[in-house]
Amino acid sequence: MSGDSDCTRTTPSAGSPSDTEFTPARPKYVCSLSPDLVTKAREELQEKPEWRLRDVQALRDMVCKDYPSLGTCLDDAFLLRFLRARKFDYDRALQLLVNYHSCRRSWPEVFSNLRPSAIKPVLESGFVTVLPHHDPEGRHIVCIRPDRWSPSQYPITENIRAIYLTLEKLIQAEETQVNGIVILADYKGVSLSKASHFGPFVAKKVIGILQDGFPIRIKAVNIINEPRIFKGIFAIIKPFLKEKIANRFFLHGCDLNSLHQNIPPTILPEEYGGTAGKLDISAWNELLLASEEDFLHDFSQLVLPCESLPQEMLVSGDAEEKQCDDSLRGMKAQLYYCY
């Protein structure tokens, strides 16, 4: 899966073995999009089916030329995620791919030993799950419930690991690459003690991954049951949000009718005024845990020692944390005030 051999290979001269003798054959890409989604991808993402593989090859060539030591997967299907996330802008897709690897290597607490079985306690708690039904736009609903997390049992980074693996699983589907996702976050019962774990350092890291380091389109973030303390939480988050993303946040409070204007009750569980039955986390947990071998294969070939990275990709977590210390003290005062 690693593309290093592709990036270092020279063009064969006359009489030399053929190109295919040096490189294992990649899986052949077969489009799984419906005709309607092909049309949607053309209109919204500037994806032209007749040029799709040419565009993928262009991105692959850029990776090999500019980042020969990146150690990334170069399969068509993998690179296509990044092109779609940046509407087939080669330069922006390349930067997203580099950021994807940089984020993974700069936060070892989150990305070391990252596999579904390692975050099983988080999955069993119900902190994050995916609702079984798509919304009218064909988007998955990722449901996050911070009240299910007990800080005494495991650190906040375990929750981030669970969210990341959930997104990795979802983005494997081409439908999700085109349609994007919707987040539903229920802040019922979030206390000051929990909120204090989400300081500027963690906020900057998480927002950086979701905005600039992961090939997924977040179309809406619906917040419900947010307590007064959420004003402080959002104050931490907002400085790191791009305006486009900030405008996709919808705060509903306890007003389920307001939520239903964004997500129809027919796909929501009873807990949120819907008609789709009780919220069941078991189906998603089973699906994610059954993907263990896939993640082991994919991630084992994406992670490389920091010594092999281009210098511009290296990020000092200590430096970032130090820069956030003063902000954290100020934000804590604001959290106490809101609480």
From TrEMBL:
<dbReference type="Pfam" id="PF03765">
    <property type="entry name" value="CRAL_TRIO_N"/>
</dbReference>
<feature type="region of interest" description="Disordered">
    <location>
        <begin position="1"/>
        <end position="26"/>
    </location>
</feature>
<dbReference type="InterPro" id="IPR036273">
    <property type="entry name" value="CRAL/TRIO_N_dom_sf"/>
</dbReference>
<feature type="domain" description="CRAL-TRIO">
    <location>
        <begin position="115"/>
        <end position="280"/>
    </location>
</feature>
<dbReference type="GO" id="GO:1902936">
    <property type="term" value="F:phosphatidylinositol bisphosphate binding"/>
</dbReference>
<dbReference type="InterPro" id="IPR036865">
    <property type="entry name" value="CRAL-TRIO_dom_sf"/>
</dbReference>
<protein>
    <submittedName>
        <fullName>TTPAL protein</fullName>
    </submittedName>
</protein>
<dbReference type="InterPro" id="IPR011074">
    <property type="entry name" value="CRAL/TRIO_N_dom"/>
</dbReference>
<dbReference type="GO" id="GO:0016020">
    <property type="term" value="C:membrane"/>
</dbReference>
<feature type="compositionally biased region" description="Polar residues">
    <location>
        <begin position="8"/>
        <end position="21"/>
    </location>
</feature>
<dbReference type="Pfam" id="PF00650">
    <property type="entry name" value="CRAL_TRIO"/>
</dbReference>
<dbReference type="InterPro" id="IPR001251">
    <property type="entry name" value="CRAL-TRIO_dom"/>
</dbReference>
